[in-house]
Every structure is written in structure tokens, then in C-alpha cells.
Amino acid sequence: MSTSSRESAIVIGAGIVGAACADALAARGLRVTVIEQDAIGSGATAAGMGHLVVMDDNEAELALTAWSLALWRELAAGQAQRHEYSNCGTIWIAADEEELAAARAKAHTLASHGLACELLDPAALYAREPALRPGLAGGLLVAGDGLVYPPKSAHILLGRARTNGATLVAGSVVRIEDNGVLLADGSRHQASIVVLAAGSRSTTLLPELPVQPKKGHVAVTDRYPGFIRHQLVELGYIKSAHAASGESVAFNLQPRPTGQILIGSSRQFDTIDLAVEPRMMRRMLRHAASFTPGLAQLNLLRCWTGLRAASSDGLPLIGPYPVRRGLWLATGHEGLGITTSLATAQLLADQIVGAHSAIPCQPYLPSRFDKPARAHA
Ligand SMILES: Cc1cc2nc3c(=O)[nH]c(=O)nc-3n(C[C@H](O)[C@H](O)[C@H](O)COP(=O)(O)OP(=O)(O)OC[C@H]3O[C@@H](n4cnc5c(N)ncnc54)[C@H](O)[C@@H]3O)c2cc1C
Fold first, then answer.
1. Ligand 1: which of 35, 45, 176, 348 to mutate, most ligand atoms within 8 Å of CB?
2. Where does this protein have coiled-coil stretches (predicted)?
């Protein structure tokens, strides 16, 4: 589909994904209106850990995360402090021989895609992260991973979009129409393109989407610079992230540039109640302290929850969705939406203006799911 530079776009949602889409579309000359019902970057974007991580569960996930990581490094270049960006890298922790075999397989995959990584034997692991409990089998250091403070990055991206002419409307979209939206105050906004980037709330507007909320708990400590130096994630995290039902916790510890330690994370289906659950928090903290025992001595400052928008096949939905004329989706990013926001925005904008993308768009197209009712297919 080709577009003139005067084409207009509405973006529903100013989380990291909506902000990135607004930025990419405005940069291509579209007249962009962002509609947000709350504060900028206040949804899952505010709750997320901001870990920028290459994931390799399948080729499509690897392609999207690796490209997006490269875009983040470009974006943060020269302005790391504004994004609270750190190129700390990830160490995937192998608790036993079975997980070490998984680390080796992961190293092979990443290396074959040109991504820098290093297998760590126990001595090398403890030299890098002395706070880890004794007896671990080793680890895998993925050097290109990093972290940002997501709400700040959302503000920066939206600010860039506004510099390129985008406008922000405070309001709640209650209906998506052909080439437009209806707001709760009764007003209508029209545009040739409507991008739904409403995170876990996307199904409020399109209930048939194969996306469901996955609740997560996170906690943050006081400042303890040097307690850990890399993002630490147990290889068992992958099992937890893949679960399609029930509850799970996984060890995921992040050294914030402030010296604080961000502790994650949990996964729960079948709830949209954002209340912190002491039971889940206890389980998550105990599990984290089983990897880094010194954690139990640190002061916790705050804990919170958020809702990931989990698609049924684990990949986001990026592309046209013609149940309404002009409608496009950028949603379903589950626990990777901070990482993949920038590549999502480029993929979406490239499709809209008919440009070639750095990676194929097919694996992420909403059309991969059967949709019985396509009014304007
Ligand atoms: C506990 C937890 C930890 C995470 N950790 C990481 C991590 O380390 N790394 C990573 O990459 N990802 C992580 N994620 C995932 C990441 O946070 C999300 O994938 C990402 O923030 C999704 O961004 P979004 O813009 O799609 O959604 P959101 O941030 O939820 O934004 C959607 C916006 O749309 C607005 N909106 C919704 N409905 C309407 C409407 N009808 N009208 C107007 N506005 C509307 C909302 O108010 C909101 O601001 C984590 C998530 C959680 C919950």
C-alpha cells in the first residue's frame, strides 16, 4: 500500500508501542494523532522491567528482538542517560547440567546469527557475579542486551513524534470505526490509518483478538550499587514465560543505573486485578533470594504489578486488520514489548508506506490467525 506524505494516522495508546509507532509514522510524514486515556507510558510500559533482551524461542522472535535491540542501541547512542539506558548485558544462569546444555544450544543459535555471547564456567560466572549462590553450573553472557527506563523512553519517542507534527489527544476510544474512532466524550476523529496500540486493553475494542492479559509482579530495592552487574535471568525463565495457563515465578534481577535492584517476575493468567498479591510477591522474592541470598538483607522500596498482552502464539500482531477500513494492529507483545517496540514501529510504518523492511513482516501479521468476520477484507 502506498501513501502520500499528507496521509493521516490515529494511534490509540501512548505506551511504548504507541509512542514508537507515532514516532515512526510522523517521521515518514504522516499527520499523526495519538489518543491516550491515561498518562503517557502508564500502562504495562510503566510496570515493565525495561530489559532489552534477544530471545530465540523461534526465528521470528529472534529476528524481531535482535533488530529492535540494534534500533535501541542507535536510539540511545549519545543519550543513554535520558533513557536511563545501560548496556549491562544479560547472564542466563544455568543451575544444573541440563540448563547448561540449554545455555550451549542458545549460544550456538545466537552466535550463528552474529550475536556476541560467551559461555561461562562456574569460575567465570562467580568472577562476574559474586552475589550468586554457590553450586551453579555456569551461565551464558549475552553482551548486546541492555535496559532502559520505559516510561521515559515513551515520553522521548512521543516528544520526537510531536516535533514532527504529531498531536496528543486526551481521551478514551470507545469504538473503532471505518477510518476513525469514537471517543467516550462523543467526539469523532477521522484518519486514513488507525493503529490500535492499546496493550492488554486492545481486546476492549476488539474482543475477538487472540490476546489475553498475563499479570506480572515486580519489586524494587533501595540503592545498592555493585550488588549485581548484569541482568540475571535463570534459564528456567523460558519455561515460565511459555506457560499458557496457571501461575509461575522466575528469577530475573536487574541492576538499575541508579544502583537499585529490580526484582522480577511472576506470570498469572485469568486476572485483570492489578492489586499486589502478597502470596505471589512472597513466592517471587523467595525464589529470587534462592539465587542471590544477599537479596534477603536489602530494603525493598516498592512493588507493583502490570498486565502483559499475551498473544496465543507468543508473537505480536503487527499489520493490517481489515475488520474496519484503515485499521492496523500493533499489540500482543507479552513480556517483550519494551524490547520489540522500535522494530514493531518500523515494521508497521514500512508496511503502511509500502517500504521494504529489514526483516520479513509475515510472521507477525494478524492475518495468521483465522478471523471469520472480515467486513472489508
Ligand atoms: C511485570 C512486567 C515486566 C515486564 N518486563 C519487560 C521487560 O523486561 N522487557 C520487555 O521488553 N518487556 C517487558 N514487559 C512487557 C512490556 O512492558 C509490554 O509488552 C509493553 O509495555 C507493551 O506496551 P504497549 O504500548 O503495547 O502497552 P501499554 O504500555 O499497556 O500501553 C497501552 C496504552 O494504551 C492506552 N489505552 C488503552 N485503551 C485505550 C483506549 N480505549 N483509549 C485510549 N487509550 C487507551 C493505555 O492507557 C496505555 O497507556 C513487562 C511487562 C510486565 C507486566
1. 45
2. none
Rounded to two decimals, what is the model's pTM? 0.96
Ligand 1 centre from 333 Cα, in Å?
8
Residue 306 bridge partners (DSSP): 216
Contacts with 181 (C-beta within 8 Å, 6 or more apart), sequence order: 10, 12, 35, 173, 175, 188, 189, 194
- The residues, any chain, with a CB within 8 Å of residue 370's CB and separated by 6 or more, are none
> Could you tell me the distance, in angstroms and rounded to a whole number, from the CA of residue 199 to the centre of ligand 1?
5
The rounded distance, in Å, linking the Cα atoms of 283 and 326 is 45
Residue 375 is predicted with a pLDDT of: 45
Looking at residue 240, its pLDDT comes to 59
211 within 8 A of 203, measured Cβ to Cβ: yes
- pLDDT at site 239: 61
Over pLDDT 90: what percentage of the chain? Answer: 93
Instruction: Please list the residues that pair with 353 across neighbouring strands.
Output: none
Best residue among 33, 35, 36, 85 to mutate for probing ligand 1, ranked by most atoms within 8 Å of CB: 36
> What would the pLDDT profile of 200-213 be if each residue is shown by its tens digit?
999 999 999 999 99
Per the listing, cell 549519545 goes with 78
User: Which residues form ligand 1's pocket by a CB distance below 6 Å?
Assistant: 12-18, 35-38, 42-45, 47-51, 172-173, 197-201, 205, 216, 218, 264-265, 306-308, 331, 333, 335-339
